[in-house]
Write a structure and sequence with these properties.
By secondary structure, this protein is of the alpha/beta class. 28% of the residues lie in helices and 27% in strands. The protein contains nine helices and eleven strands.
Length: 253
Amino acid sequence: MVDSVYRTRSLGVGASGLPDQYADGKAARVWQLYIGSVSSRTDTYRQWICQTLRDKGCHHILDVACGTGIDSIMLLEEGFQVTSSDASDKMLKYALKERWNRRKEDAFDKWVIEEGNWLTLKEDLEDIAPAEGFDAVLCLGNSFAHLPDFDGDQHNIKTALKNFAGMVKPGGVLMVDHRNYDYIIENGKVPQANSLYYKGKRVKDIKTSVLWVDGTCKMITLDYTIDISEHPDDEAPIHKLRIEGEQSEPHYR
């Protein structure tokens, strides 16, 4: 690596065929440092998610934004049956690795992982989805805001949401989260309050860029400076890197 900047703004294409800003796999290598460990958010995030699902009688969960597997793993450890998909094959390889490492545990041995494009989700998962649908479909970690809206008519957004809903059984749960974009647009930066989801202690700085076109917010880009000293995958004596460009589009505005 020549410098400490990981540029992830390239609109590469994952194996699923969906434009994927993480297609080069560089961000996936340090994703855990960014979001923190599963155990660090046990008392808040885990409790709320799992109790909500249990209160709704949910057991079989579809995680459509699996990434490296952190939420799916949390649910498996809590006794849920989990099917996981993601458009980024580079992210999914870390989930597949964890499944292999823990294959002697029954829940992980039965963990189903499949590449999936949100725009063709039914077709991509038709061989593994239960006929009656999943008890719950989750799209967490601010993942939904990464779906490009190139035409500006929200067609892709509506298609993805329709496909999510189509995977939920009648009376089931669809859960989608995102950052506080109202705050970011109004203040030009991310909130400084404690986050329930992002618990990584190595994020040293976040630069926020807001793109306005004809008076409308079109894109928000977050550049992270992360301390990677003593990271086991380090190949050079670099103590910090910058993940340049978590691009999000505030679709709801």
